[in-house]
Amino acid sequence: MARMIGQPIVMKPILISQLALATVWLLTGSLAVADQDSKIVFEKQIRPILKQHCFHCHGEEEEVSAGLDLRLRRFLAQGGDSGAAIIPGDPENSLLIEVLRSGQMPEGKDKLPDQEIDLIAKWIQQGAPTARSEPETVAELDAFTEEERNWWSLQPIAAPQVPAANELTDSTNPIDRFIARSLQQSGLTFSPAADARTLIRRLQFDLTGLPPTPDEITAFTEQSKDAPESAYRSLLERLLNSPAYGERWARHWLDIAGYADSNGFDEKDVVREHAWRYRDYVIRSLNNDKPYDQFIREQLAGDEIAASLGMHANSPEEQDRARYAELLTATGFLRMAPDGSVSQNNITTRNQCVADTIKIISTTLYGMTIECAQCHNHRYDPITQADYYSLRAIFDPGFDVPRWRVPKNRLVSLQTKQQAEQAANIEKEAKKIDAERNAQQKQFIAEVLEKELAKRDEAIRDDLRVAYNSNAKQRTKEQTKLLSEHPSINKLSASSLYLYDSTYKTKHAATLKEIAARAQAIRDTKPTEEFVHAFTELANDPKAVVTTHVFFRGNPEAPKEKVLPSDLSVLASWRSTELAEFSDAVPTTGRRLAFARSVTDGRHPLLARVIVNRVWKHHFGRGLVSSAGDFGVLGERPSHPELLDWLATEFMESGWSLKALHRLILTSQTWQQSSKRSKRGDQIDPDNQLLSRQKTRRLEAEALRDALLAVTGKLNRKPFGPPIPVMPTTDGSIVVGNDTTDSAGRQTGKYIPLHGEEYRRSIYVQVRRSRPLDLLTTFDAPSMTDPNCISRPETTVSPQSLLMMNNSGMRAHARHFAQRLQNTGPPDQDSQIRTAFELCYGRKASETEIANSKNFINAQQQYYKDNPAKFENESGPAEKENASAQALALAAFCHALLSTNEFLYID
User: Fold this and answer.
1) DSSP letters of 748-791?
2) What residues does 271 pair with on adjacent strands?
């Protein structure tokens, strides 16, 4: 039997803090700590420390604290109110070292790490040198140093030459040439190629998130014996063209886009009923291999693209209407952030929604932590506070904080004029039926009223009748008093008629119900009005367009200077960062369209690098830049910088095709290697950054759930449409199911079947921020309580093992698996065991495994004969009868197979 999950992973202790390392590494690209003899210069090693800890008080603000500006070496020597901050050559008598070592500075913050203080002291000891001459005045002071401007990820993407072949590989794939060069330089080699069974399982999970069937594995293995390359390429194309490909890779994109079906923010967590259309847009775009540059432009400015093409909901051509709907849906990317204004519509919640959206944009497109500059200049990267608000200015006209639209008011109807007229005509006919019902109902009420009045004294009948028929707000005191004295008349209404007249209850109620049904049948013929969560700008007078200001320390109620829309200013030395607006082609500001075109022009340094790295990460378990969401100073440097730039260049030149990028990576010798570790490889490259082998990886949360559905035979492949709901159980778990809790949050015990919808792929399960599905979150799926998920953690914790072994949902999967074995193939125990191994692991069971499995099943069967039990359901009514001991025993065996490392991990 395969081993159970949950084996501990040995983690290396973190000896130096990330921030401390950053100050040593900052702008040098090296982790080498300066020793006593190495030259330390202000711009490269010292200024980054001061920028991180001190500039906010000593340089960036309008008032310089204590008269001391730390932005130049010369200013440190001149000093402030307390005299010179440094005495070159004499660190022990330098005021800066004194206040840092005592912890007096930075004021109100933690003391600087000793290694940083020691570095500053060594610099002073060496005479406090600079790398170059400093400007004479503050006015001449550049926002960035030369080292900051030269940061690797902010440089133009190069087109490096592919290395020559060497003895490690005869592959013509350029990826292998780059990897082979690094391996050779380190004394390593490629691992052997993985076998056919491993390759098809790895490839199918990578591209579709689903396991191959036993028949698919057998066919591929046989074809690979005679024509391995042809068989592999044929398999690759089949998977890339599968609808499951878009469902698998859309999940990766939706993580960084922050996709959710609810607004989050508070416990109400209001549902976004139409957000799923954006999810479907992403799936379709990936399946159609929409060029990535077009994919980005549509999400940033789909509405402005539609306007520039003259497309709208009432376009005369159906294809134009469909294209308009697609473009509007794409802008849902800018409506994914959590939004508290649905319940607390104030300046704080509005600003937070905007800030979260800017974070999604910057981490998705730039792979940079631009949001860190919201309150002050970025402490590590060359990003100013003004840069942050200039980026925000691109999107502010759509947010329009002063004229804020709450989520329901942002919905854009896709209904055409013709459909609206058709719906209006249908509603007019339905209202005629409503009028007929109302008249009939009034007649019934009048009849009952007269019967009730007949029971009263004749002297007050007319007064009671007048009082009852008068408008409640216009009744006199006398009429109100009279009715209160006769409650049976006062309470007479359509909803209470059955209490007065048994004839009404048996006959008249049926008459009214039939009339209402006729009206509803007519209304059901209305064309469905579809809505999208779109990002659009309100009609604007150009002179009244919302302006963007820098906020003092990020406070939206403390605006400072006005900024114009632009890209990061650090790029201005080699590309234009200004954005044109008020194009005649669109009726809106055009800012987003200008930005979308700029960022996808093929010369932007980050867009292609970031997405290529993300694709690489999902294929290898680690990016060429391991910090996929941070290409800045605190992030990791590329393990293979030339390969990264070559891939980015190739990606753009191939038409921004993601499928072409997949082909390039997946046909490489590097990707097809075995994952078997070697002693030499672990010694030289323990983290496998040089890629001398493939990495064994655990299934991601959604792939795990989908694999369970596929293996047990329950998978429903229905694509697209509204999400499958989730619900809380009585024990507080979140499972798939129709929520039947009442308004007070109490369980009603009702069960509304989903008719097989509960077995659809995980990407179609509702992403409710306050109700993440237990199975998914336990295996590291994001709950989207943050704006987005830049990179999922990879944890190995005990709740994962406990869930696989004890969760009622897992027991339900095991039951379905057992039923599949009983309903297909020969009924004998040996055949069922062999089939189970092939379905679960894609391989044949050994004779020892068969014998052990039989012993286990027989022991379980005897146990359940002695201890009868019922099957459990994750949701829905409990079973009424005990299950057979044979069925329970087979389910226990299936549960054991599904809970193993071999099922959970891919080699």
Assistant:
1) -------TTGGGB-GGGB---TTS--HHHHHTT-----SS--SS
2) 262
The C-alpha atoms of residue 379 and residue 270 are separated, in whole angstroms, by: 36
Give me the pLDDT at residue 139, please.
63
pLDDT means per 10 residues in the chain (907 residues)? 33 34 38 53 86 82 80 84 86 87 84 89 88 74 82 94 91 96 95 97 98 97 95 98 98 97 89 96 98 98 94 91 96 96 92 96 96 90 94 95 92 92 93 91 86 88 89 89 88 78 68 89 92 88 78 93 95 90 80 96 97 98 95 94 97 97 98 95 94 96 97 97 92 88 74 92 96 94 92 92 92 95 90 96 96 96 93 80 93 96 95
Provide the CB-side half-sphere exposure for 245 (13 A, CA). 20
Q: Which pairing describes strands 726-728 and 734-736: parallel, antiparallel, or unpaired? A: antiparallel
Distance (Å, rounded) from C-alpha 162 to C-alpha 174?
Answer: 6
Q: Which of 336, 305, 854, 396 is nearest to 597 (CA)?
A: 305
Radius of gyration of the chain (CA): 34
Q: Is 765 left (phi over 0), alpha (psi -120 to 50) or beta?
A: beta
Q: What is the pLDDT of residue 72?
A: 84
Q: What is residue 284's predicted lDDT score, i.e. its pLDDT? A: 98
Interacting residues of 628 by C-beta distance below 8 A, sequence separation 6+? 367, 610, 613, 614, 617, 790, 791
Closest to 182 in 3D by CA, of 890, 685, 810: 685
Q: Which residue type occupies 96?
A: L
User: Could you report how far apart the first and last alpha carbons of the chain are, in Å?
Assistant: 18
How far is C-alpha 243 from the chain's CA centre? 20
What's residue 444's pLDDT? Answer: 84
Q: How far is CA 328 from the centre of its chain?
A: 20
- One-letter-per-residue 3-state SS of 600-638: CCCCCCCHHHHHHHHHHHHHHCCCCCCCCCCCCCCCCCC
Domain ranges of the chain: 18-147, 174-241+609-693, 291-414+535-599, 420-529, 807-906
> Half-sphere exposure (CA, 13 Å, Cβ side) for 675?
12
Write down the H helix ranges in 491-555: 502-503, 509-523
CA atoms within 13 A on the CB side of 301: 27
The rounded distance, in Å, linking the Cα atoms of 355 and 350 is 9
100 is written with which tokens?
A: 């840092």
The SS3 of residue 560 is strand
